[in-house]
Amino acid sequence: MVKESVELKQQPQVVEEIAIEGFDHVELFVGNALQACYYYHRGFGFDIVAYKGLETGSRDSVSYVLRQGKVQLVLTSGLNSKTNIAEHVHVHGDGVKNVGFRVKDARKAYATAVSRGAASIYEPREERDDNGTYVSACVGTYGDTTHTFVERHAYNGIFAPGYRPLEKKAGNSGLLIIDHIVGNVEVDRMEHWVEFYQKVFGFYVYQYFDASDISTKYSSLISKVMANKSGSIKLPINEPAIGARKSQIQEYLDYYTAGGVQHIAIATADIISTVAELKNRGIEFLSVPRSYYDALPDRVGKIDEDMDELHKLGILVDRESEGYLLQIFTKPVEDRPTLFLEVIQRKGAKGFGKGNFQALFQSIEREQELRGNL
């Protein structure tokens, strides 16, 4: 497991944030990258754009790069049981290992983060090929999760040196860009990691939710959303709250065996067509009861979408002062009840669907009960 950063409370308050342009990529460590690639390609409509493996000179790992809109996923497997990749999958199952941030200066971002207490995973690396120069550096965050600073302004290749291009089109499902990435951490560890992002990255608390916002009669959670000033990065952090039964966050921690990424939220410009397409491709989503939609008109007022269509697809709606948003959540995308994906469309709203938390929490709890883990 990645060693946690040094004690942050002894450091002065950080004002200047690390300059991050946006999410660069998300890398998942998986048991079989070829088969996982087929699932994300055929199921979610990601194009396969690059490959690294034995044929390219990589002797211990294989990776596929998938792309849709501005979303890049990297699926990586170890080629023998002694790799840290294989060990990660053995301990955690398939899951997100790394969240990459696009930066103008990877060396400066890394030096700043480490000087403020972040654990170094690897120092800046400069890689070159015929397409230019690619620079990256990596630090640790919660659990075994890492953040890579990626500098690619002088690189024109398909992804990075060592990868060869592939052209396997899937047919776009309408996914555009990563909206936010949510992490789960252990009881009483949320504040530590909130402080980590404040003092290492210069992020701030964008929104806060407590047990009164997200709870059922059985369980609840606490969440704080960390963000940079431009809003290009939003990282909610959840921890379980003590309840009568096991929280869904605790279920995640039990099966992942550490803090880690709970879900990736991806934005679309037309959630109805995107979800319909994903369902046609075989992707399964959480469902909500009819009563949710009966109460919806009074709760959110007039919206552009047809309520019956939203009900048929299971899409949730929430209104805020700036507008409203629509969202839906997949079931776990692997055998362990850990990682899932969210599809979201924002129509003015900048929050996270606070009005949907109760319905969402209950939907996940129903699935949790079916698994015998409530």
Structure description:
This protein has 374 residues and is an alpha+beta fold. It has two domains: 10-168, 2,3-Dihydroxybiphenyl 1,2-Dioxygenase, domain 1 (Roll), CATH 3.10.180; 175-370, 2,3-Dihydroxybiphenyl 1,2-Dioxygenase, domain 1 (Roll). The chain is 25% helix and 34% strand. The chain is built from nine helices and 17 strands. It has helices at 33-44, 84-92, 106-115, 190-201, 248-256, 271-280, 290-300, 307-313, 357-370; strands at 22-29, 47-52, 61-68, 71-78, 95-102, 120-129, 132-140, 146-151, 164-168, 175-184, 204-209, 220-227, 234-241, 260-268, 316-320, 323-329, 340-347. The strands form two sheets. The chain has a nine-stranded mixed β-sheet. It has an eight-stranded mixed β-sheet with strand order 11-12-13-10-14-17-16-15, sandwiched between helices. A hairpin with a 2-residue loop joins strand 3 (61-68) and strand 4. The longest helix is centred in the last third of the chain and has 14 residues, at 357-370. The radius of gyration is 20 Å and the shape is globular.
